[in-house]
Description:
This protein is of the alpha/beta class.
Amino acid sequence: MLLIDDFISILFPRICAACGNSLWKQEETLCISCEFHLPRTNFHLTSENPVSRMFWGRVPLESAAAYLYFNKGNKVQRLIHQLKYKGRKDIGICLGRQYGNHLKESPLFRSVQQIVPVPLHTKKLAQRGYNQSEQFAIGMGESLNIPVAPEALFRTKDTETQTKKSRFRRYQNVAAVFEVSDPGPMEMKHILLVDDVITTGATLESCIQVISPIRGVRISVATIAMAPA
């Protein structure tokens, strides 16, 4: 069996998704060095952080945080690119598990009862084969032992990518494009809305606007990364 495993590793080498170096047998997705040096924000430890401030005075929100800092050319950008465009669903699940373990430390997220990923339009979902935000949600759900509701929201139209749009154009692009599938399962619950990258908060704000009228709902936000606006 060991010889077979070694032969397979030669044909299909396991490499770190962040740095490209070979993984040891006990490592999964990320090498220990890259995992240790991820640019973590620790925003989940304080209610007044750059992500939560994006939503002040705009929509009702319990807490908000992002796991990592996203900057052009850094390893986080590489991870997000592979997650979204190279079929690496394992990256989302891996980062979700990690962040879920961190959120356990925070009283701000301790009462979360359901995780809702920001949905893709059916056309884009068919092209990509999966929703990257849902993979992140799955990993978080495993760590936090909280159910994930991937169909709680749906996107009514296929919008253009937000990349390179101004702040105003981002809001225009995603205005009124989300709807709630069934409000019943979210009533009287603390919902954790998750996405891959937050830049201006426009997409998440559009989702919050359709969730917040639900009876007794409370909403928090978590993303893989925060990018500069």
